[in-house]
Amino acid sequence: MDNALATPDNIILTDAFQRQFSYLRLSITDLCNFKCSYCLPNGYQGKASQNELSLDEIKTLIASFAELGFKKIRLTGGEPSLRKDLLEIIQICKSQPGIEKVCITTNGYRLDHFLPQWIKAGIDQVNLSIDSLSPEQFELITSSSDLPMMMEALNNAIENGFTAIKINTVLLREHLDSQVTPMIDWVKDKPIGLRFIELMQTGDNTEFFNRQHVSAETIKLWLVSRGWNKKDRLVHSGPAIEYDHSSHLGSVGIIAPYSKNFCDSCNRLRVTAQGQLHLCLFSDDGKDLRPFLGEDSSAQLVKIIRESLNLKLPKHYLQQQQTGATRNFSMLGG
Ligand code: SAM
Fold this sequence. Notes:
The protein is α/β, with parallel strands linked by helices. It is 28% helix and 18% strand. The protein contains nine helices and 14 strands. The chain has helices at 55-67, 86-94, 111-120, 135-142, 147-159, 176-186, 206-212, 217-225, 298-309; strands spanning 13-14, 20-21, 23-29, 72-77, 101-106, 125-129, 165-171, 193-198, 229-230, 241-244, 251-255, 268-271, 276-278, 287-288. The strands form two sheets. Strands 9-10-11-8-7-6-5-4-3-12-13-14 form a twelve-stranded mixed β-sheet. The protein has a two-stranded antiparallel ribbon with strand order 1-2. Strand 3 (23-29), helix 1 and strand 4 (72-77) form a beta-alpha-beta unit. Helix 1 (55-67) packs parallel to helix 2, helix 1 (55-67) packs across helix 9 and helix 3 (111-120) packs parallel to helix 5. The longest helix has 13 residues, at 55-67. The site of S-adenosylmethionine has 21 residues, from strand 4, strand 5 and strand 7.
């Protein structure tokens, strides 16, 4: 089946499996300054990120995705806050007609400095990666001693009324006891979203994955047995299944990429910091959009994105250990 070009009435791009796409995850740099044990345990290797998309290229890209009906942009990386022109990038996304939601995923580096700036710039949602509430364990996992600073920045933002915050926690067997119960207790009086992400295998982390992987299904069962209720999924939502509870201000989301039918609700496309379109986090390769990011090539870009979507596979093959070209998530944003 052909995919439909956006029109004012019908602004959804559809693939051969009837999935509708409205959410772009744009990596703006490969560079990362944390050493997360499951992602870049030895830190970012090589030179600082080369050939990142320029502001003009990002403008063309965002305009074309908006023309195709995309409504939500997530800025990711690497660590997006390492880009000096991040505020301008947020501005480009915010000022693009058709884009309704601009989000960022961050490791919390200098959050006390950046978060107020992002809020002022109109960011619609901040996803903050916190794998443990214990500063010692946090440092063990990420190499960063910044957790107390991040918590303070987070609490300040909430006190000032900014609650569009989600916490990303990657489930790790070794740290499970200090993750699930303490973190769910923590959001009892915090009106924010907590999301447990099942560890995914990548090209680089096979041995770590084999040691630390825990199925997210166990957390779903845990929640249901304690009276948590599954919420309805919204059309532009990410991959999490969300739960709420009458005694908790915060919600809990589960991202379970190994679960059956996980890819049936995929609504996302990804573009790397160098302008490669990836149809899936675990694609074997990307389509280079850079030749079409000049000021006058937007019509061609729209055509290329539409044609590429026809190649999107029905699912990933992570269960068969097929991790595609993804050596780690900093390459194209998790
Ligand atoms: N640097 C930012 C951060 O740390 O949030 C954005 C990029 S990071 C790749 C995005 C998310 O992917 C983080 O929440 C991180 O914990 C998650 N992630 C990285 N590698 C992962 C893996 N192998 N399995 C599951 N989640 C992973």
